[in-house]
Amino acid sequence: MDRLVTIRSSRYGMDIQLDPDVPFLELTEALNRKFSDSSKFFKGARMAVSFSGRTLSRTEEARILKIISDTTDIEVVCIIEKNEKNELMYKSVVEQTLSNIQKKEGQFYRGTLRRRQILESDSSIVILGDVEPGARVAAKGNIVIVGALYGSVHAGASGDRNAFIVALSMQPKQLMIGDIEAKRQIIYQESLNISGPKIAVIDGKRIYLDPLVD
Length: 214
Fold this sequence. Notes:
This protein is α/β, with parallel strands linked by helices. It has helices spanning 24-38, 58-71, 87-102, 184-192; strands at 5-9, 13-18, 46-52, 75-80, 106-110, 118-121, 124-128, 136-139, 143-149, 152-155, 165-170, 174-177, 180-181, 198-203, 206-211. The N and C termini lie far apart (44 Å).
């Protein structure tokens, strides 16, 4: 039974390895036992969680998160999907953002923002998904998109020119930091010259793109 569920420490927090063949109900019983037995090791912990071994539905993920919540003091700040393309991005996002989440200075949003959807934040925000054309994100702090940016984003919306915007792919319809709006064609050209995750920052009086990871 113990081999049905294996809990491992990951660079982001915790990876839960699940047996791919047994019925899900049997897994939940094993999860209950495993977390109940190890609850003393997780007092007050805030971490990101990933799943491996089998593909889970959103309902099954929610069931596992409830088990974690009911049996431990762990606060799950986000679920990380295993994806080699996003590996560097996840590493950077989680390591740099978890401290802010712990201080309640930021938030995670999981899901793709589609046409006409608007997401606003009074702090920084990490979006685990794409921002599609016609969608809009505005935050008083930083905006980190673990996905593609095609819509409109405004970081430092209260006038903070030190804010930044990060995305795996960056071809926005509109991009603003503080009171400065980037020239769309310049951002597009700079994006083509940079592989991997990109960060947009203000330097002087205009917005530049740089690689997130050197």
